[in-house]
Amino acid sequence: MAYWLYKSEPSVWSWDDQVAAGEAGTSWNGVRNHVARKNLEAMRLGEQGFFYHSNEGKAVVGIVEVIRTYYPDHTDETGRFGMVDLKAVAALPRPVSLEAIKAEPALREMVLVNNSRLSVQPVTEAEWALVRRLGGL
């Protein structure tokens, strides 16, 4: 089982929007980075990830789950990129800020710390457990 982190600007798509999508979830589209595409392609049904508010807030705010694996992104006119579908699973009782993540020595190798521009990124099992604990889960 792999873990992931999905970044979204709250003014474009927020945690509240994801929660409002309900059990049907929503597509995670618009990714135009080849590394992020490979991450999307690697995802399996039922895998979970952190929902991260980027630019505004800069914090992990919730957990989402993959409910449909990689398929073509209808918003990509080139046909090179795809998407997955996600549903909200749980909000973090305490959002975990980027500042808090950077301050935690055990998270210094986290992709979020070292490649903050990557919109979809892997999270190790140890990082997953620690960020959940910092967030009150």
UniProtKB/TrEMBL annotation:
Segments forming domain EVE: 2-133
Residue intervals passing through the bilayer: none
Protein name: EVE domain-containing protein
Top-level taxonomy: Bacteria, Pseudomonadati, Pseudomonadota, Alphaproteobacteria, Hyphomicrobiales
Pfam families: EVE (PF01878)
Originating species: Methylobacterium nonmethylotrophicum
Top-rank taxon, per record: Bacteria
